[in-house]
């Protein structure tokens, strides 16, 4: 499904009775917008997208949105993906991106099965501000973050809202955080998320001006929360046992400060 000309559209199924299956012989995402398209204000709801990925098949994302605007996923399920479940990104000149993404009350189950480094549950990158990832169940994630925000030379996914997601990572060749914000993905609200478990850090904040409130990490192989940016505020986050991969070095920590730039910790 190519969305390039889709504007102000609703794509709605009948819940579990509507199952879309990814074509095994196609080398592209099942749902996508290309960099030259004008996809705007499209909502997907109430269906299952099962990519049914198997080794040897094309390693593609389930959903790839490029230079789109205001795309929404509500009460959908995305399963068994070789790479990422949902990617919102830009392409071309600086300033390009996919702003105003909404992923709400959605399931992403078994993403990143190819076990490379791009197997995110939800990835927002480039100049894609104001994304909201709220109330989702993101499980069985390999080779990427459960929820990731990544800034590039095109810009950063600033002002994200990441609330009340349940994230479950599985071991992979390259383990990543349950939730991770890279430098430039500033001013996010990250609240009441559960990561159970993480095989890297539970939560990583390398950007500035973020508010992290009442997040829970059941266990993490490295640190519960890794902080590098400035002006971050941490309030009442709960962290279980950490440092399983670091015990021989004695470096595992509930909160690891990589940069001491005016981060406020409130228990």
Q: What is the makeup of the main sheet?
A: 10 strands, parallel
How large a portion of the residues is in β-strands, by DSSP E?
Answer: 35-45%
Distance between the termini: 47 Å
Counting helices, strands and paired strands, the structural category is: mainly beta
Can you describe what's shown?
The chain has 267 residues and is mainly beta. Helix content is 0%, strand content 37%. The chain has a ten-stranded parallel beta sheet with strand order 1-4-7-10-13-16-19-22-25-28, with no helix packed on it.
Descriptive key words:
267 residues, mainly beta, ten-stranded parallel β-sheet, globular
Show the helix and strand layout.
Elements: E1 7-12, E2 19-21, E3 31-33, E4 40-45, E5 48-50, E6 63-66, E7 69-74, E8 77-79, E9 86-89, E10 102-104, E11 107-111, E12 122-125, E13 132-134, E14 137-141, E15 147-150, E16 161-163, E17 166-169, E18 179-181, E19 189-191, E20 194-195, E21 203-205, E22 211-213, E23 216-217, E24 225-227, E25 233-235, E26 238-239, E27 255-257, E28 264-266
Parallel strand pairs: 1-4, 2-5, 3-6, 4-7, 5-8, 6-9, 7-10, 8-11, 9-12, 10-13, 11-14, 12-15, 13-16, 14-17, 15-18, 16-19, 17-20, 18-21, 19-22, 20-23, 21-24, 22-25, 23-26, 24-27, 25-28
